[in-house]
Amino acid sequence: MSKTEKLILRLQSKPKDFTYLELKTILAFWGYEEIQGSGSRVCFRSKSHKIKLHKPHPGNLLKLYQIGLIIDELKKEGLI
Questions:
Q1: What are phi and psi of 35, to 5 degrees?
Q2: Which of its termini does the chain have fewer beta carbons within 10 Å around, N or C?
Q3: CA angle at residue 32 from 29 to 34, to 5 degrees?
């Protein structure tokens, strides 16, 4: 099992310590690119889909609602 596959399983378990860098790794695996918006806003865009959220700050940990949103969006796209 690859590092990315392990991260995907970890994301699905909705951990309280999932980092923004881990999210970027997973989304890059599926071809998403990060687009910086204004302030802490970012958009991860693939050819046909967008995931919008705020970068966590001052730390690097995603909030549980963000993890839930990301999982829902990836399920809609049939990725998980």
A1: -115, 120
A2: N
A3: 120
- Which residue shows structure tokens 């046909």? 48
Alpha-helical regions (H) of 1-63: 3-12, 20-29
CATH of the domain at 43: 3.30.920
Distances (CA, A) of 4 to 7, 28, 29, 40, 76: 5, 10, 7, 25, 20
The residue count for the chain: 80
Query: How many domains are there within the chain?
Result: 1
Find the domain containing 49 and state its range. 3-76
